[in-house]
Amino acid sequence: MNESLLSVRDLSVTFGPRGRRVSAVDGVSFDVGAGETLGLVGESGCGKTTTGRALMRIVEPTAGTVTLEGVDLTAASGRALREQRTAMQMIFQDPISSLNPRRRARDIVAEPLDCWKRATGEERRRIVEELLAQVGIDPVAYGDRYARQFSGGQCQRISIARALAMRPKLLICDEVVSALDVSVQAQILNLLEDLKAEYGLTLLFIAHDLAVVKNISDRVAVMYLGRLCEIGPADTLYDAPAHPYTKFLLGAALEADPEAPRRSEVLEGEPPSPLNPPSGCRFRTRCPFATERCATETPELREVAPGHQVACHFPLTLARPEGAPA
Amino acid sequence: MARYLARRLITLVGIVIIISIGAFYLIHLLPGDPATVILGTGDSPQNRARLYAQLGLNRPVIEQYFVWMKNILHGNLGTSFISQVPVWTTIRAALPIDLEMIVLSQILSFAVAVPLAMSSAKRPDSWLDRFLGAFSFTMLSIPAFILVVVLVLVVAIKWAVPHTGVSSYVPLSQDWVTNLESMALPSIVLAIGSVTVYYRVLRSDLIATLQQEYITLARSKGISQRRILWRHALRPSSVALLGTAGVNIGGLLAGGFIVQYLLDIPGLGYTLVNSIGLSDYLVVQGIVLVVSIGVIVINFVFDFLITLVDPRIARE
Amino acid sequence: MSDETLLRVREVTTAFDTPQGRLTAVDGVSFDLAAHESLGVVGESGSGKTVLSRTIMGLQPRRGVAVTGSVRLNGAEVVGASEGAKRELWGRQVAMVFQDPMTSLNPVVKVGKQIDEVLRVRLGMNRAAARARAIELLEMVGIPAADSRYGAYPHSLSGGMRQRVVIAIALAGSPQLLLADEPTTGLDVTIQAQILNLLDEVQGRLGMSMILVTHDLGVVATRTSRLVVMYAGRVVETGTTRDVFARHRMPYTRALLESSPKVSNPSHTRLAAIPGRPPNLLDLPTGCAFAPRCAYATDRCRTERPVLEPADEPGHLFACFNPLPVRVGSPS
Amino acid sequence: MSSSLELSELVEEATETPDGRRLGVLFWVCVGWLALNLLAALLANVLPLPNPLTQNYNVINAGPSLHHLFGTDDLGRDIFSRVVFGSRVSIEAGLGSMVIGFGVGAPLGMLAAYRRGRLDQVLTVVMYVVLAFPAIIATIAILSFWTPRTLLKIVIVIGVAAIPLVYRVIRTATLAVATQDFVVAAKVQGASDTRILVRELLPNVAPIAVSFLLIGVATVVTLEGSLAFLGLSVAPPTPSWGNMINESRTILQLNPWLALFPAAAMCLFLLALNFIGDRLRTHFDVSEGKL
């Protein structure tokens, strides 16, 4: 792995009043190397979105540290915090609600520049037009349109342009393509890959769609009920999942191929309530391999292969005989 | 549900206490000596002495409040220094008239507004809907006092309907025919105001509800449109209606004075206006307190009705 | 028409009157559906797939809609039928599973009562029998503790559970045709798999026909025998699921297949994105609606509208002037 | 999604400007009428109108004529002039109290909805309690004993009573906007709270505020009229619509013009306010719902 740009240690977020406290994120740690894309995948309510927001401190973490290039982001406040935030940027799930409907595309993209008085007049105009052109929005024809006049895909492009205006080091993409049609989704994914190369970006790509996450990520982290289950290189993790949850998740993914085997192993039941999570391993209530130990002892992330960590007492890869097909 | 109600009940009590402080403290907010304000035209040395004894005006304000509160809890709102009648007696005579007026007008309003809103929502933009929309909008912009003036002119004078005065007012228990005759006009005036509001609120919510997916699902079961409207659409659409009705009925209790005053109905509002004219402070204070508490209780009742209609609300 | 044919759709066109003009959401769609068969209808937003499913049921809004053509369900014509006549079909012959389980259940009615309604109003059961049957249905769709869930309000159930309830409502009248409109779109992958398996299982068990409407080719790949691919309100390709996946001739079908990422592909596989955006139904081009986004479009495509013509395989049709050559092997 | 909702989506997808809906001719007629009223009230002193207080016993209870457009009252005063001057009381009371209500309630409502947390909790509880106190009764009680009565006092009492109502409406409206992603996006770019309130929230809340303000003015005009009936508004002989209608009651059959013109002026004024407010609300609500 490259030198890590972002380092997250024991990040926890809890919501709600006493007695009804929800532990949305519980002791999550990971690193993102400079120039790499980390995919964060999981089902709804697993805490992936909260993790992304806690990194930017839109949601205040209750514990843990977030370090970007050696600077502790959890310590800053006020103007310092606002200034630090510009090194990270975020793109959201709902492209329409991400843009203020009463502002023009041009001004939306210029907003970060105006905020920090980075550019004015001719320079501001040049930067904005360059950014818009780069994300595939013709600045001359569309620059003066209001946000509400754009389609979902176009809105997402404008959001990306806005996020790039401050030349951030890290881009957090939170379900950025899940509201889009397949054809538009592919356009945005390709655009992100291109911009990543051009700007030397580091990406944290949060999504529920396994195929999308694999497509864009170098490494993938899987979350379940507020905790990390497994983290590893995308191809290895998909070929040989070590955590039973990852295996079931992949088994449930639908392949657009009529010849694909119809996987019969379906994960039964539904995730338990985060209000009252199970003791020990949080997946144990639905895990067919769970034992006594899983209920009493919380599994920590440990390495099963170089760069591949899993939080399970009985990882699947170790249980298999050497050389078995993945 | 029980927890939600208990919480609401606690807030209710809290607000009543705060209101009682407000009603009590009103006198100290007004410029001038409280004794002069209270006695108004009934000023005399004896009255002054009695007032000081009754309220302990020379004692600290906080103590005065507790004396006052203690009296109220014993059903003693004081005795008017102008009419020499206990305030509670005056209020007890007037309150049933307000209640009757409100009950009559509300029965009438719901009976008219709900079917009208349904027929409008069934076919939005139909001629009926457009007509009702324009009509309700016009009625909404006519203040009650103008409506009363016009109605009195048309009904009471042109059609020679007996125009009962305060002196000829007969309680319901004595002679219900005469009573209803005199209550018809004020109830209709209040109902007209309520119908326009209820119709508009329910219509727009019904239209929104009828576009919901669960209505399409209900249709896809093959049940009749009538059943869909009454069983599936009305209940989820009536949350705002009930909220509005709670506020509106409270408003009728507090704002019915204009109709009562113009039509000579001796309810609370009429008494209030008269007492203001006589500067009978204790009666005004008593009515303010009773009406305030009434408004809060009505709101509480309607909040409760809303939780019955929509089980999701009590959960939040 | 063979007696095996349950549903016969011919030249169905659904147009809406909007303030901006006439919007043709479904344009001349024809297909047949045999008893016990499952058919997938695939398309992106604006392709008319949802409007088509509602037109088949006759469930469109009462005003501002013009439907022409013919939809025959078990011989009964749906297009132009009175609301009363359609009501006879709804619930008993055809039932629907809706897209969003969060909004398709009445929030103020207990879930048991919502199932009861079909049984009591349509099947004339008494209260006790309806209750017993409703609990049976809840068990059948895999709801644990069905007895106590009978009295639950929808808001206390998860999305997956609600969708099971919606399926139970649809099954209550033992329909012959089940229309599932994006039944798993808002659900998590593991729950999606559960619901799709459930639909599959009840369809087989009750011998129903099913139309599965979706934007996701993964949903229909292994669960339908035939496919209809729609674009801008028209059918652009149809055939057996295998033929459409492996031997598609219409460039849009290929684009749809290749633009969605696959779990089996290595990471950073470049996606074949379709340029442009889904068509504007109020302002469709004169020729092929896909022509502005198509790499193979010629002048003819831009002026003349292609009609469905047969491919080599039986039942496989496509609408394209410049069809793709048949590739050997599967597309992946 | 129901068919009709899906339809609106299709239409939106198909048309580049969903906001292209028109406000309609009637809307602009109402705006014009309102403008005319305001202008007349503003210029009443400059316009060639007879003095509204001058009594002329030669022409009492006269019907409309070229000389007296709306006729005269029982003291021979020109009704047209009194209607025009009387509008000042209504307009001043309506606008004045809304200036107080919005001046205090709107910023607090926006701040509470944006900041949330403790500030929001405290403010909302305080406003809830004030709101529970029936405003009409409180207004009457205070005005009846706070003598001598002036328009300023009426404006202050009604204005203060309006604060919690305005607070609640603005808070709800802001809340709907403040939870949108574009506000989070602004935060992420490092925008300051002031900048977010002014640049992102205000433009989206303002249309709702304006429509509510107009309906608020209409409510206050009605309330002021009611107060006049109780003798709690400005004292005669100063003309106000409420005073004029009240005075006319005793001689209604003798001179119906006396009631008709101020009543018509008031109703049309209210109708215009309500119509504009309502139209603006539906106009913006729809696009707000699509945010």
Question: How is this structure best described in words?
Answer:
- The complex is a heterotetramer of chains A (326), B (316), C (332) and D (291).
- Chain A has 12 helices and 12 strands.
- Chain A is α/β, with parallel strands linked by helices.
- In chain A, strands 6-7-8-3-9-10-12-11 form an 8-stranded mixed beta sheet, with helices on both faces.
- The relative contact order of chain A is 0.14.
- Chain C is an alpha/beta fold and 332 residues long.
- Chain C folds into 2 domains: 1-93 and 177-186 and 206-262 and 272-286 and 297-325, Rossmann fold (3-Layer(aba) Sandwich); 103-174, no CATH class.
- In chain C, 31% of the residues lie in helices and 23% in strands.
- In chain C, the strands form 2 sheets. Chain C has an 8-stranded mixed beta sheet with strand order 6-7-8-3-9-10-12-11.
- In chain C, a hairpin with a 2-residue loop joins β9 and β10.
- Chain C is globular.
- Chain D is mainly α and 291 residues long.
- Chain D has 10 helices and no strands.
- Chains in contact: A-C, A-D, B-C, B-D, C-D.
- The interface between B and D is large, with 53 and 46 residues.
Strand order of the biggest β-sheet of chain A: 6-7-8-3-9-10-12-11
Q: Could you name the CATH homologous superfamily of the largest domain in chain B?
A: MetI-like
CATH architecture of the largest domain in chain B: Orthogonal Bundle
Biggest sheet features of chain B: none
Biggest sheet features of chain A: 8 strands, mixed
CATH class category of the largest domain in chain B: Mainly Alpha
Total domain count of chain B = 2
Number of DSSP strand runs of chain B: 0
Q: Which regions of chain A contain 5 or more consecutive residues with pLDDT less than 50?
A: 320-326
Shape of chain B: globular
Q: Which percent range describes the beta-strand content of chain B?
A: under 5%
What is this structure's SSE topology?
The complex is a heterotetramer of chains A (326), B (316), C (332) and D (291).
Chain A: E1 4-15, E2 22-33, E3 37-41, H1 48-55, E4 63-68, E5 71-72, H2 78-85, E6 88-91, H3 105-115, H4 121-134, H5 139-142, H6 152-164, E7 170-174, H7 182-199, E8 202-207, H8 210-216, E9 219-224, E10 227-233, H9 234-239, H10 244-252, H11 292-296, E11 302-305, E12 308-310, H12 316-319
Parallel strand pairs in A: 3-8, 3-9, 6-7, 7-8
Antiparallel strand pairs in A: 1-2, 1-4, 4-5, 9-10, 10-12, 11-12
Helix pairs in contact in A: 3-4, 3-6, 4-6
Chain B: H1 2-29, H2 34-39, H3 45-55, H4 61-73, H5 87-122, H6 127-140, H7 144-158, H8 176-210, H9 213-220, H10 225-255, H11 257-263, H12 268-277, H13 281-309, H14 311-315
Chain D: H1 3-14, H2 25-43, H3 79-115, H4 117-132, H5 135-145, H6 151-178, H7 181-188, H8 193-229, H9 241-248, H10 256-289
Helix pairs in contact in D: 2-3, 2-10, 3-4, 3-6, 3-8, 3-10, 4-6, 5-6, 6-8, 7-8, 8-9, 8-10, 9-10
